[in-house]
């Protein structure tokens, strides 16, 4: 049986990467989404086990110690995120492709251990548009907005190290571009 491929989608907060992943998963029965773990509290409307597995810091550190995370990161200096290893490996062994929606730091960790991973970076049309999208969420203080925009620029600076870069200036077009990337990689 052919082993599944691992696709990593990254991009700054507010670029639409989650929406793009959701659309791809709706249309592709051979694609699985790995739900990350995090120590941050849920945002309004987020569901435990669907958006993230919301866990305690202690449980996170235990997973990390037991080599249960494919990648792990500390974001904004306090919140911990990671990708549980076992579901990803099981799906790939079954011949299914897996998509991870993770940050740049995590993407490079995964690439280190799985060189065949395909890295896809979602870019905003402009920094001003990104700012408007983040502000539109209504969940940021001036301080957290500045931190997110600073982190966004650092991530964008590293996007050239990715296999593909997709500008999300039109959602339908961006979804189709990523879908084409996945199909092309499957054909290799």
Question: Descriptors for this entry?
Answer:
7 helices, 44% helix, Rossmann fold, 4-stranded mixed sheet, alpha/beta, 21% strand, single chain, 188 residues, globular, 5-stranded parallel sheet
Commentary on this structure:
The structure is a single chain. Helices cover 44% and strands 21% of the residues. The two termini are 16 Å apart. Strands 2-7-1-8-9 form a five-stranded parallel β-sheet, with helices on both faces. It has a four-stranded mixed β-sheet with strand order 4-3-6-5. Helix 1 packs across helix 7. It has 188 residues and is of the alpha/beta class. It is globular and about 50 Å long. It has a single domain (6-186), classed as Rossmann fold.
Gap from first CA to last CA: 16 Å
Instruction: Please tally the β strands and state the result.
Output: 9
CATH structural class: Alpha Beta
Could you state the CATH homologous superfamily? Answer: P-loop containing nucleotide triphosphate hydrolases
Structural class, from secondary structure content? alpha/beta
């Amino acid at each position: 049986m052919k082993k599944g491929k691992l696709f990593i989608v990254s991009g700054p907060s507010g670029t639409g990467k989650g929406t793009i992943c959701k659309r791809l998963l709706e249309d592709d029965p051979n694609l699985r989404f790995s739900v990350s773990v995090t120590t941050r509290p849920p945002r309004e409307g987020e569901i435990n086990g669907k958006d993230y597995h919301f866990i305690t810091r202690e449980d996170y550190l235990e997973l990390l110690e037991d080599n249960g995370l494919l990648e792990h990161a500390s974001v904004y200096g306090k919140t911990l995120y990671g990708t549980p290893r076992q579901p990803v490996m099981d799906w790939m062994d079954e011949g299914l492709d897996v998509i991870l929606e993770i940050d740049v730091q995590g993407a490079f960790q995964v690439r280190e251990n799985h060189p065949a991973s395909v890295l896809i970076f979602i870019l905003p049309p402009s920094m001003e548009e990104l700012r408007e999208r983040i502000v539109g969420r209504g969940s940021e203080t001036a301080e957290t907005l500045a931190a997110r925009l600073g982190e966004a620029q650092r991530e964008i600076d590293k996007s050239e190290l990715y296999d593909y870069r997709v500008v999300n200036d039109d959602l339908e077009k961006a979804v189709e571009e990523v879908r084409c990337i996945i199909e092309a990689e499957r054909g290799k």
